[in-house]
Amino acid sequence: MGIFTRQWDPKDKHCYVTGGSTGLGLSLAKILVKNGAHVSIVARNQEKLNQAITELESLRISPNQVIKSYSFSLTDAGGSVAALDAASEPFEGRVPDALFLCAGASRPRFFIEDDAEALERGMRDAYWIQAYSAHAGIKKMVRQKVHGKIVFVGSMLSYMSFMGWSNYAPGKHALRGLADGLASECQLYDISVQMYFPCTMETSGYEEENKLKPELLKKLEETDKGMTPEDAAKAMYRGIQLGQQHISGDLLTSIFRAGTRGITPNHNILVDCILALIAWIVPTMPTPAFLPILDSGDEELIAATTRCGPVLLPASSKYSLTAGSIYYVFPDVAAPPSVDQVATWLDRGASKVVVSLALAKDLFGLISPEKLVLLLDTGSASAVTDKIRATVSGVLLKTETIDTDLLESIKQFFKGLSFYVLASAETVPTTTTIQALKQLGATLVIPSSQLTLSSNSPSQLNIGDAFVAPLISDRPDGLFPTIVTAFNLGGRSLGLVYSSKESITESICTGKGVYQSRKHGLWRKGETSGAIQEVVSLSADCDSDTLEFSVIQHGTGFCHLGTTTCFGDLNGLPALERTLQQRLQSAPQGSYTRRLFEDSKLLRAKIMEEADELCAAETKEDIAFEAADLIYFALTKCVKAGVSLADIEASLDLKAKKVTRRPGNAKPQWAQSEVPKPPSTVVPTHATTPRAPAVAENTDSIRLRTVDLISCSRAERAQLLKRPVLKSDEMISKVKPIVDEVRTRGDAALIDFAAKFDRAQLSTTIISPPYSPQSMELDPDVKNAIDQAYANIHKFHVAQAEKTPLVVETMPGVTCTRFARPIARVGLYVPGGTAVLPSTALMLGIPAQVAGCKEIVLATPPRPDGSIVPEVMYVAKLIGASAVLKAGGGQAVAAMAYGTETVPKVDKIFGPGNQWVTAAKMLVQNDTDALVSIDMPAGPSEVLVISDMTGNPAFVAADLLSQAEHGIDSQVVLVAVGLTDERLAEIEREVDVQAHALERVEIVRESVRKSLIVRVANDEEAVAFSNDYAPEHLIIHLENAQAAVKSIENAGSVFVGPFTPESCGDYASGTNHTLPTNGYARQFSGVNTLSFQKHITSQEITKEGLRNLGPVVITLADCEGLQAHGNAVRVRLAAI
C-alpha cells in the first residue's frame, strides 16, 4: 500500500466527538457525517448542541445515520464515563469505533498572576478533559474487543512553549506524552492512537480568549495568521486517513514536530541506540559449566553430556539424543542455512541456533533473540552493530588460543549476552581454563572428542571434572547442598541432600542418583531399597554453590519413610495423576472411575461436556471450577493411554520452541462464522434498560452446569453460594452526575434526560389526578386481570396491617405502648423499557395504600410520545397515587429523593430497577441532604428450585425459565434431591425445548450458562443448602413439600407444591413480589404493609409506678455519671 493510500474510512462507523458543538469539533463532525459516519457529539451547552445537531442533520447522506448529542461535563472521570455510556446505548452498548477528543479550553495569563485553582483548571481543561475520555474509551474497546481509534487534539504548544501559556502548555505537553505512550501500548489491542497539533484557530473561543489575553501576548502573536476551524478539520481528517501518528496542519508546526520527534510505536526511530541500551542493562543469566559440541563419542558419553546441560549439535551430525535433551544447532560453515532452515530447526526442538553475521542481519525482527547465538571470530567482533547485538541472546567466539585479557576486552562489546568460547582443536581443555572463563562470565565450548568418562589424560578431560570445575562450596566439608526434583512430577522437590565432586562425577557418568552422606560416604540411592533414580539433568545455581538434580524416581519413593517426597504428600496435578494411575490398576468394578476407563464413549462425552461448560464459564471461580473438571477427565484419558504429565509437558515445551505458527483457526466442526452487525438506528425506549442483542437464531443446546455437593470442599461449597459481584462503587460514580444534575437543575434536568434517554419531548414532568380515561384505555381481559390481582393482593396486605396498639404493663404503674403510623410520603419506582410492568405498580402501590401513606408518587419512564403505558396509569388510579412522575433511571430516584419544582420529595423509595436505579438508591440513602431511606438492597432476579423424583420435569424446567428470562444476570439454581442421571437429562431437555420456544431465548441462554444444578442426597441437605443460599424465590417440588416449609429459615417467598408456580406470586396470588436478592433474605423481608409504616413507642407511669421504678433509674444514671438523668426522677419522687 502506498503512503498516500486512504487507510481509514468513517462510513458506517460510530464516531464520538467531544467539544462537538462548535469550532474544530463541529467542523470535524460535519466532515464525518458527509462521509457516512454515525456521529455522537458531546459538549456542556445544550443550546449549542441543539444548533449543531440541526446543522449535522442537514448533511446526512443516509436516513440510517445515527446523529446524536449529549450534554455532559468531561472534566471528571464520572462525567466522561457517563457520556460514553450514553453514546453507546443507541448501539446496544457497543463502544464507538473512533473517539475524537476535541474538547478543551485555554486561558493565557502570566504565571505569577495565576492562583492554585487556575493552575489546576489549566490541567483539567488541557489534559484531564481528554485523558478521562481516552481512559474510558480504551477500557471499553479492550473489553469489547473493538479495534478502534483514539485521536487526541493537542496544540503547537505540545512541542514548545513561551510566555503567557504556563497554565496551558504543560497540559498539552502531558497529553502528547500520553498519546505517544498509548500509541505503543495500544498496539497490544489493535487500537490506533493519533494526535493532531493545530496552530491558532479563529473560533468564538479564541475571541473570548483574546479578551483575557495580556497585551504583550497579543503583540507576540501579531504575525500568527491562524487558520479556520474548517481548514483545521480538513487537515486533521487528512492526517487521520493517512494513518499519521502526529498530524500537523501548517508548516511551522511541522518544523517543530520534526525537531522534537520521539520514538514511534514501532521503534523505527533511533532503534539501534534504544535496543543497544536495553541489551546493555539486561543481566546475564546463569550459564552452564561448559558447552559440549558433539564431534564424536559413543552413546554413553553423549548421554552424559546431555545431563550436564545443553549441547552443540552440528547440523550435519547423525547423533541420537535422549528425549528432552537441550541442544543448540551448529550449522556447517560451508553450507550456510537459510532463514527457513533456521526456523525448521527451531520448530523441531532446538533451543537455539548459531548463526553467522550475515544471517543475523536477515533474521532481525523475524525470530526471537533468545533463540539465536551469533558466530564470530576475534577479527569480526568490532563489526557487530547495536542492531545485530539486539538480534541475538549470545555470542560464540572462535579463537586460536585462550587469551583471557583479549576475551575480556571483546566481551565488553556484548554485555548482557551469553558468551561462549571455542578454541582451536589443538587447545586441550583444562579445569583451570573453565574456571578462568567462568570468572569472566564466559563458557568454554569443548568438543566431545576431548571429553571422557574415564580419568583425565593429556588429550581428554573427564566430563565430571569439567562440570565440577567452576563450582564453589561455602561449607567446611566442601560439599554442595543439592535439591532433588522430580522430572516426571513437574519439578516437585523431593528432598535436600549433599553432593561431593566424587558423587557428582559418578552421577554424570552413570546416570544414577549418587550423593554424599555426611556420615557414611557415597550414597548410591536405591542400592539396597530398590528406589533408584534416573538422573535427567544436573545444574548449578547462579552462585555455583548449590545444585539441582532432576530425576525420575522409581520404587516406593524418595523419602526413607517410603513416601514420594520428604515434604509431605503430593497435591495438584501430580496427586491426581498418581491417584488415577492407582485406580487404573485397582478401581473396583462398577465404580465411576472404572466406568470411565472402560467406557470410551462415556469418557469422550464427559470431556466434550466439560469443555463446553468451560467455554461458557465467565467468572474467575467458574472458569477455575470448569477447568478442573475438564483436566480431570482429560487426564483420565491420558492415564488410560499410558500418557504421563511429563509427556504432556514435553509436548508443551516442544510447542513453545516453535517459531512458525499455524493460523490457529478452529476446525470446521467448531468454527462459527460471525457476521458483524451494523449499528442499530433505533434508540432504546429507555437508555438504562439492557436489551437482548438481535442475533441470528441460535439452536445450540441450553444447559445448566452440574455439581455434586457431596464431592465439594467447604471452599467450593461457599463458591456455589456466591452471586456475580456488582461493582457498586463504579456504578455510583457513573450515576452521580445524573443525580447531581437533577438535584441542582430540577425539572429542567428531568426534561433534558427524558429527551436524551427516552426520546420524549416533555412539557411537564408529572401527571396529577384525576387521571383521564383516555390514558387508561385497556383491553377488557387485561383490565379484569388487573382487578382480580388487585383484590387478592389487597386482601392479603390488609391482613398484615397492625390494627391495634401493643400495650404491656411492664411493672405495676408502668405501661409501655407500641403503635404503627404510616410513612407520610413514599416513592414507587416501576421499571419500563422492554417490558410493561403493572404488576410492580400493584405490588408497591397496594401496601402503601393499605398502610395509609398520605402521598404516593409513582415514577416510570415515559414513552416517546410523552405518555405512560395505560396499564400502569390504571393501577395508579386504583392505588390512589398522588402523582405519576414521567422519568426513569437514576434521574427518577433523584427527583423523588430531593424533590423538584413539581415533583414532591418523599421519605422512602421502593421498587426494583437496573444497575443505574440501584446505584442511585444507594447513593441518595447515604446523603444526609436527601433524608430518604430505601426498601432494600437490590440485585438480579433469582430462583432456587428443590425437586425430588416426584417433581414433574416440565414443571421444574418451566419454573427455572420463569426467572431466567428476567435478564442475563438472573440466577437459576436447581437442587436435585436424589435425582437419577436419566431424570436430570429429562429436566435439561425440557429446559432446552421450552427455552427455544421463548421470545427472550437469548436472555435465557446467557442466564442459564451462569446457573447450576446441585445434586444432594436427601431433603435435609437440600433445605440446608437453600438456607445458606437464601434465595429470592424458593420453589419446593418434594413429595412432602409442606413439611419442608417448617425448616425454611432464609427465603424471600416460598412456593409450595407442584401447582404453585412462582409466576402466581409475581402477579396475583396475593403475596408481594418485591423481594430481597443476592442473599439478603438472611436479613431482610420482602416488601409488605409494615414496610410502609414505622413504629412509635410510648410509656405512661403513675405515681405508684415512679415509686417502684424511680430508684432503679437513679442507680443506673449515677452509675453512668449522668446526674441530670437521675435528677429528673429525684425531683418527682420528692414531690410525691
From TrEMBL:
Its cofactor is Zn(2+). Residues 496-567 form the Phosphoribosyl-AMP cyclohydrolase domain. One of its GO terms (biological process) is L-histidine biosynthetic process. Its EC number is 1.1.1.23, 3.5.4.19, 3.6.1.31. GO terms for molecular function: ATP binding; histidinol dehydrogenase activity; metal ion binding; NAD binding; phosphoribosyl-AMP cyclohydrolase activity; phosphoribosyl-ATP diphosphatase activity. The keyword Transport does not apply. InterPro entries: Ald_DH/histidinol_DH, HisE, Histidinol_DH_CS, Hstdl_DH, NAD(P)-bd_dom_sf, PRib-ATP_PPHydrolase-like, PRib_AMP_CycHydrolase_dom, PRib_AMP_CycHydrolase_sf. Pathway: Amino-acid biosynthesis; L-histidine biosynthesis; L-histidine from 5-phospho-alpha-D-ribose 1-diphosphate: step 9/9; Amino-acid biosynthesis; L-histidine biosynthesis; L-histidine from 5-phospho-alpha-D-ribose 1-diphosphate: step 2/9; Amino-acid biosynthesis; L-histidine biosynthesis; L-histidine from 5-phospho-alpha-D-ribose 1-diphosphate: step 3/9. GO terms for cellular component: cytosol. Pfam families: adh_short, Histidinol_dh, PRA-CH, PRA-PH. Keywords: Amino-acid biosynthesis, ATP-binding, Histidine biosynthesis, Hydrolase, Metal-binding, Multifunctional enzyme, NAD, Nucleotide-binding, Oxidoreductase, Zinc. It catalyses: 1-(5-phospho-beta-D-ribosyl)-ATP + H2O = 1-(5-phospho-beta-D-ribosyl)-5'-AMP + diphosphate + H(+); L-histidinol + 2 NAD(+) + H2O = L-histidine + 2 NADH + 3 H(+); 1-(5-phospho-beta-D-ribosyl)-5'-AMP + H2O = 1-(5-phospho-beta-D-ribosyl)-5-[(5-phospho-beta-D-ribosylamino)methylideneamino]imidazole-4-carboxamide. The keyword Ligase does not apply. Residues 661-692 are annotated as: Disordered. NCBIfam families: hisD, histidine_hisI. HAMAP family: HisD. In the C-terminal section; belongs to the histidinol dehydrogenase family. This is Histidine biosynthesis trifunctional protein.
